[in-house]
Known about the structure:
Elements: H1 2-20, H2 23-31, H3 35-48, H4 53-65, H5 69-82, H6 88-99, H7 103-115, H8 122-134, H9 140-153, H10 158-170, H11 174-187, H12 192-204, H13 208-221, H14 226-238, H15 242-255, H16 260-272, H17 276-286, H18 294-306, H19 309-322, H20 330-342, H21 346-359, H22 367-376, H23 380-393, H24 400-416, H25 420-433, H26 438-451, H27 455-458, H28 462-472, H29 480-496, H30 500-513, H31 518-529, E1 539-540, E2 542-544, E3 547-554, E4 557-564, E5 570-572, H32 574-581, E6 590-597, E7 600-609, E8 617-620, H33 621-626, E9 629-632, E10 637-640
Amino acid sequence: xxxxRFLIGVLLTMALAAEAQNQADGVKALEYENxxxxxxxxxxxxxxxxxxxxxxxxxxxxxxxxxxxxxxxxAFNAGTQADPKNISNYIGLGRTYxxxxxxxxxxxxxxxxxxxxxxxxxxxxxLLANAYTNSxxxxxxxxxxxxxxxxxxxxxxxxxxxxxGNAYEGLNKSGDAVNAYERAVELNxxxxxxxxxxxxxxxxxxxxxxxxxSFKKAIAADPNFPPAYREQAExxxxxxxxxxxxASFEKYRSLADKDDNLEYRYxxxxxxxxKYQDALNVFNDLKNRMTNPILYxxxxxxxxxxxxxxxxxxxxxxxxxxxxxxKILPSDYEYLGKLELKTGSEDKAFGGISEAIxxxxxxxxxxxxxxxxxxxxxxxxxxxxxxMLKISKMPKNAPFKEVASSYFQAGKAYYFGKKYASSDSxxxxxxxxxxxxxxxxxxxxxxxxxIDSLDTAxxxxxxxxQMFVSKAFADSNTFRKELTEAYQYxxxxxxxxxxxxxxxxxxxxxxxxxxxxxxxxxxxxxxRDSYKQQTGPPIVCTRDSSGYQIPAIINGNNMNCVLDxxxxxxxxxxxxxxxxxGGEGNGGASMVSILKVGERSLKNVPVAMKTQQxxxxxxxxxxxxxxxxxxxxxxxxxLQR
Length: 641
């Protein structure tokens, strides 16, 4: 018996609570965008107090916001019967016809409302502007004109400025909208919805700090205002703070109406924050209750992201069957193409992806999807073509890193596809874009080896390997394998051309990076053995931080020259030019009359000035080679043959 009494007490309490809800509660529910709650409150109020026309007006607004035009029209008609002289419901009826794009019928109701009041009725301007702004076929200019007319009569009505901000947003006049909203909160500091719209405008302008500040003001004005948390969640997502975004959205869920629309929003939010399986769970639950074709889109997208490709393709095809063709997005073709690709329908996939790019040029990056697929299929040349197609579609302000990466992928694909000339052309462009990146020169060298099978003799790869070494030698850990390749080529090239000093230098570099390279070790031994029958004693070199110091006599002056295998002849710094040649060594203008190393001498050796050279004077290995002298690096001595 006690349990029965307790249950009756609970039910009575609930009933009294429901009855206690008044018009202000319903209006707040409308402002909170809790339209189902607003509908419930005003249905009850219109039954309990059928003589108040505003109950019907607000009920009609709730129905309109839920997309139920017929029910809205019934409510507004009932409101005109409750009080034929109240303008609100006539304006509401006019809006229902605007929703159906019947402007003539709408105007008749608006004119009826105007006939019942004076031209200075501020409420009339607010209600008319609201109808024009929130209609399914809005007229933002009309709305703004009406509100500016109202301001001629008073500039102290917060609702006027609120509606004006809405109209300016619709006209993409963001600055004017912010000014209107700021005036609204100046007049009504508790207007959380105005702060929220300011936050949205700043968020769309990518002014994150100002946006966050506005949302905080909205929440301070009304901690229970759901849209502020929803929009704040979108801000946090936009700036990459998804944990905060989820917390804000959960707060929004706790304050918003618990219905399928909320769950739909939640699923979309989960998808946007990369919680694809959670989003899929929400959408799968909704599909039994919602018939919106957009749900098929979201199911398809989510299934793709979690790897359920056949199911995703089925949902995507269902979406294309159900959706109005005019409302199909480029991303729909993108996902259709990617799903076709994952399920083995290559031709259809390429068609879908190409259609997405055609409809939205900013999706040029999708060429990567096709190119990557072809590359994995070892269809390298075709992959290269699609990478180049991507480059051709890039905007002029595309990020440098993306442009350079695309050229690299294209050049590499052409190289493995044996289209060496195409690859070389691509890497030539890349080396111009990024002159200090070593890999472009490496691939240009490799391409030359395949373009000309006699390259060792013709030396087309030589300058590119040299350039690669000059860019990469400082980072031998990263480029160990590639430097070994380059040094070995340069060693072989110099050995082929009997420039044994340079050859030994490069082969020594190979051994330093690859101590177990028996082929190079054997070549070094062969060259050194050829110098065993010396015509003179070994000449001892010294070695310091700048390299090997070669004792030499230049124009009768004793000096030590740094060995530089990359120098042809002799090179000097500006200081060395002044000191040894009286400043004449400008750009190779000077000549050394006599160069003597050990017992060997050479006349008319060219001198070039290198402004960036750290040592005063450097001697090229080619000069020693012409004297039949080589550096024996292990013993730090010069061998004469």
